[in-house]
Amino acid sequence: MRVLLVEDSARLRTYLARGLQRAGFAVDTAADGEEGLYYAENGDHDVIILDLMLPKLDGLSLLERLRAQGVKTHVLILTAKDTVEDRVKGLDTGADDYLVKPFALEELLARVQALVRRSYGVKTSKLSFGTLEIDMARRVAARSGNKLDLKPREYSLLEYLALRAGELVSRTEIEHHIYDERVEPQSNVVDSAICSLRKAFDVPGEASMIQTRRGMGYMFEGPAK
Asked: Which residues of 119-148 are buried (b: 16+ CB within 10 A; e: fewer)?
């Protein structure tokens, strides 16, 4: 899943970006409000983490512009302002959640994951597809009770496809939501990742849960319980 982090503190920005990346998120970062607005308007993000006290354009003004444009990406506000009035103002402007500094990285990750689930209309942290179970809170998956040995990016790919089960997902969408770096044209990085996932949880002799639609993308099949 792709996250936009708008934070002017270089130290905090680096720390949070690394923590998000270790958890399997693709991360774009911006150091001021104008840069953050550009990324938010031109990117495809699942969640925006937004500081309020930003140079060039403050966080509330940035958020107000996004909502006026119809951008519906879920926004988590980070701020040192902790009064009820400040929180209410942020939520009224269009924020979806609010986290006061200082905070624990684990809490931020949990809140971001909750917003991701909300983005895809999922209320529970667990998804079930036959014998395949995905625990989005713990970021682990298992088949027939056996935990799958997945790298963070492989898990993120599985989660993204599962959240969009029954939908055709293009390679471009996967590249935008899963990978930090720009994927070169004609690259087989997505195909290789899909192949690794199939090896990790498909059952020999049974049809793969990830179907290829040649020239179009992939579809994760199987009704969730």
From this structure: beebeeeebebeebbbebeebebebeeeeb
Q: Where a domain ends, among 119, 154, 179?
A: 119
Within the chain, how many helices (H) and strands (E) appear?
Answer: 8, 12
Evaluate the CA torsion angle 64, 50, 9, 30 in order and state its sign: negative
C-alpha distances (whole Å) from 87 to each of 4, 16, 78, 107, 126 are 21, 22, 10, 17, 30
Q: Are residues 193 and 93 in the same domain?
A: no
Q: Which of 87, 103, 119 is the last residue of a domain?
A: 119
Tokens of 111: 């809140």
Instruction: Please tell me the pTM assigned to this model.
Output: 0.83
* 225 domain residue, yes or no: no
Helix (H, G, I), strand (E, B) or coil at 9: coil
Same domain, 206 and 171: yes
How far the first Cα of the chain sits from its last, in Å, is 23
CATH classification at residue 15:
3.40.50.2300
Task: Tell whether 137 and 81 lie within a shared domain.
Answer: no
Tens-digit pLDDT profile for residues 135-175:
988 889 998 888 999 888 888 899 999 999 989 999 888 88
| Residue 200 phi, psi dihedral angles, 5° rounding | -75, -35
Pairing, β 217-220 against β 168-169: antiparallel
**Which sign, positive or negative, has the C-alpha torsion 37, 41, 44, 45?**
positive
Structural domain that includes position 134: 126-220
